[in-house]
Design brief:
single chain, alpha/beta, Rossmann fold, 5-stranded parallel beta sheet, 10 helices, globular, binds adenosine monophosphate
């Protein structure tokens, strides 16, 4: 199985690039943010809980996020592989993901981290707010908080994969096609 973590700060292009990767490699795309948003739309219990955190730009608690991700992974029949987008965001989530994949007799192949500097992220998120309809894109204070949470809690997850020699940084600046090519070429070298 090919199991990819597409990593990076908010606005780095994880969602856009995930679409390209699933098309090419036939992977299952699991975006925890998308799943939470679908639950908010469906007014489920999980959605009501997650919304409190998402609207403030905070992380949904690990226990809730891990349980949700586990059930999404386990419901797939004979997957060719996964692309994890927006997960793991903490070391506890990374450890839980390893455990979960071990039970399926597989493991993470690589973490591909899209690298984009902070000012560019803010420009992109502001632009995205005009089309995404996402409350957390529209509020500059929430954007600041999401970037702060990324730097403090999520960025250290890189070390977890660096220690396993599974980390590859990808320049996230340039056209969408250029970045896709960089990702393809990194994957082809695995
Ligand atoms: P995203 O669509 O990846 O930008 O995620 C939007 C929001 O959903 C985040 O700001 C968090 O509030 C929540 N979220 C998404 N993924 C996770 C995760 N792995 N752990 C905790 N919260 C998450």
């Amino acid at each position: 199985m090919l199991n990819i973590i597409l990593f990076g700060p908010p606005g780095a292009g994880k969602g856009t690039q995930s679409e390209r990767l699933i098309d090419k490699y036939g992977l299952i795309h699991l975006s925890t943010g998308d799943i939470f948003r679908a639950n908010i739309k469906g007014e489920t219990e999980l959605g009501v809980l997650a919304k409190n955190y998402m609207d403030k730009g905070q992380l949904v608690p690990d226990a809730v996020t891990i349980k949700m991700l586990r059930s999404e992974v386990e419901k797939q029949e004979n997957p060719k592989g996964f692309i994890f987008d927006g997960f793991p965001r903490t070391n506890a989530q990374a450890a839980a993901l390893d455990e979960l994949l071990k039970n399926l007799q597989t493991s993470i192949s690589v973490m591909l981290a899209l690298e984009v500097e902070e000012n560019e992220l803010k420009v992109r998120l502001k632009k995205r707010a005009e089309v995404s309809g996402r409350a957390d894109d529209a509020n500059p204070e929430v954007i600041e908080n999401r970037i702060r949470v990324y730097n403090q809690e999520t960025s250290p997850v890189k070390n977890y994969y660096q220690e396993q020699n599974k980390f590859i940084g990808i320049n996230g600046l340039g056209s969408i096609d250029e970045i896709t090519e960089r990702l393809f070429s990194a994957i082809n070298k695995i």
